Amino acid sequence: MAAPDRLTVVSWARLALLSLLGSVLVLLVSAGLRSLLWMLVAMAAVAVAAVGTWWALAHSGWLRVTGALLAPAALVAVLALFVTHGVLAPALLSLALWLLALAAARISTTPARRTAGQGNEAVPVPAAQRPWVVMNPRSGGGKVERFRLAEKARAAGVRVVVLDPDRHQDVAELARRALADGADLLAVAGGDGTQALVAEVAAGHDVPFVVIPAGTRNHFALDLGLDRDDPAAGLEAFTDAVEFRVDLGFAAGRVFVNNASFGTYAAVVGDPAYRNAKLRTTLQALPGLLTGPNAPRLRMRAGRRHAEGLQAVLVSNNPYRAVIDPAAPGLRESLDSGRLGVLGLRVENSAQAALALTGDRRSTAVTRLTAREVVVDADPGADADPPADLSTGTETGTGTGTGTGTETGSGGGKDIPAVPTVPAGIDGESVLLPAPVVCRVVPGALRVRVPRHRPGTPPNRPRADWRRVTRLALTPPWRRTGRTPDDR
Known about the structure:
Blueprint: H1 3-31, H2 34-58, H3 62-84, H4 88-108, E1 123-125, E2 131-135, H5 143-146, H6 149-155, E3 159-162, H7 171-180, E4 185-190, H8 192-205, E5 209-213, H9 219-223, E6 241-251, E7 254-256, E8 259-263, H10 264-269, H11 278-290, E9 298-302, E10 305-310, E11 312-317, E12 340-345, H12 350-357, E13 366-371, E14 373-378, E15 394-396, E16 406-408, E17 421-426, E18 429-434, E19 437-451, H13 466-473, H14 477-481
Parallel strand pairs: 2-3, 2-4, 4-5, 5-19
Antiparallel strand pairs: 1-6, 6-7, 6-19, 8-11, 8-17, 9-10, 9-14, 11-12, 12-13, 14-19, 15-16, 17-18
Helix pairs in contact: 1-4, 1-13, 2-3, 2-12, 7-8
């Protein structure tokens, strides 16, 4: 690292230590040793609020009402107590200094930034000769029309197919036809689910793939470092682009660019009412899914690691940076590690919920690991979903190339044993997959092109490592500048 960078890192480390010391001194000066009592009171209020939140989410009836009232009441009560005893201002100042210390500590230990969320070198490439793009006019609340994406793409010489929202169209088949007609690049302006369908075709034929972030969340675009606020900026990938390879995840042979979810979340997104009333549908479904007598339970196996009785399992195409990271939610360290990220959740009581919701490292409710292959199945100790007949391997559904999770088939007049299934959410789209579900990652399977000029991904801020921060802050001057004492 060059000397100016080293000096900057040391400065952040020193600011972190000074802010941490200041947060402690403010409490001690204002309240003396009683400040320890106030800290315990604040921690207790946060724990009570976490328990109330769990009751409100996982239960129904009077317990849900109690939790919904308890969570805010605990925080309001501790604020009122602080005001009554005249310690609110010092407490807020101490909290601000503590947050500043954490931020400075994370910045001081942040590794060198990687380009666009991936480690492969981005190589400049000439413009495609016959690019093709499919656009979903319903994605992102109508971003295709609002940003005039079809018009701008055609002006750039791109063949454009705009999906008809009133009838079912097989997006993967449209992409295959485009390749048969001579397309040398495939692109999608739509949500992550549509992107996964076309990405599978692109990977299978080893042609470049372009993402136009016209969906609602655009998680894949975020990890590629694209400008999600201006989808039209993504069109530059057709004319002035760089290319690199990223991994693809597979769940029972079906591609996912972001993640495959099982259990609670998969059951929620599988509810037909979810698309039009997400919050209400989620709140209505969670009690039965988390604490109900027939709540789905899963088991997971990854190499020598295994877990049972899980309420939810999330398998991601490359690991997410952190289980809970408000600064960068949903971001992955890279897209080319050749590893799956695995998160398993099992919450049995309010105490476990409190530790999980507060991000406590002692929490046993969250299982986190990485693997090249993961097997997910219904827990034999719980009631599995009704089996489905997968004899023909076909799906029935509506929308833009994704099924509704109902699988049908015929056995040619013969009785064919039904295959047990597991509900899953593949990049947010609800499906039924034959159990057990084998999830795997294929390194470097997809060629991705992105604009040469793009925002990039936020830097990866690690957890505060106070030992390292202290060593940096106490670095002698000659080590900071690269000189020795004899050079001065």
